Amino acid sequence: MKLSNVIGILFQMIELTRLALIPTLKDIYKNPYLIFHPFYVFFTNVWAILGPAMDEHEKEMKRGLIDPHARGVVLDLGAGHGHIIKYLDQSKVTKYIALEPNICMHSKIRSEASSHGFTESNGNFLLISCSASDISSVLFHLSTSIENEEKSRLHSASGIIIEDIRVDTIMTIRSACSFPSPEKTLSRLAKNVLKPGGEFLFVEHVLSERKDVAWWQRFWSPIWEAFAGCRLDRPTHLWIGGIKDLDGEGRTIDMWSASEGEAKRLAEDPEENLFGHRIGRFVKHL
Length: 286
What we know:
By secondary structure, this protein is an alpha/beta fold. It has one domain: 3-Layer(aba) Sandwich (Rossmann fold), CATH 3.40.50. Helix content is 42%, strand content 21%. A 7-stranded mixed sheet has the order 3-2-1-4-5-9-8, with helices on both faces. It has a two-stranded antiparallel ribbon with strand order 6-7. Helix 7 links the parallel strand 4 and strand 5. Helix 1 crosses helix 2. The longest helix is centred in the N-terminal third of the chain and has 28 residues.
């Protein structure tokens, strides 16, 4: 690998710290309660720098993935500042659910959602602050968001998940890199939260297939995780693509329809990029 690719991440951390530190201290000074969530405050300011530029650079890629495929009830994992909302086709999306544990980002999400017609008062927007790995809480919020007359028709026994409260689309855009127990979390989301026939859409930076790049990703991951809360060395695309399910007779089967779905490398990503991405779409079997 080129030395510039190896150490570039270090200079990125230094520059982002320089730009985000003073705003972070100001936010905590204005609201001393935030001293209990310093990482949330810092990363909110980091994302205010990175997010808009990245979104602008990737708008055509995101539009091509999200616009034609996101439909029905959409669950956005790690919604950040709500950058994906503008790509939703409101003629196909009936409800936008933003899952974002970082409470410092919630006002941005609400503002962006409202500007595109998704509001809690209209019943087509829901903001959840739990972790993606907390499947029980996710399902609880989904169930309590259903209209009372619909809830009366639902019942559950022995922990069986009711299909009616599941979502039609799950999206994760650079979020699975920070999930606790990521492989297990992704599997449980696909099994328990996504409806049969639903779509799982993702854009994630992943572990490189090149051994030299992967070595440096593993080297930098603990440091980057402490700085930005995510890891560089997760084969997220393989975990998602390899999720299994059980059929009616208890036999192991693929979670995804064989006739639809794929994960591919972003063409514009250099091979030596420590943040090499995969973009993917999978459709859950019926």
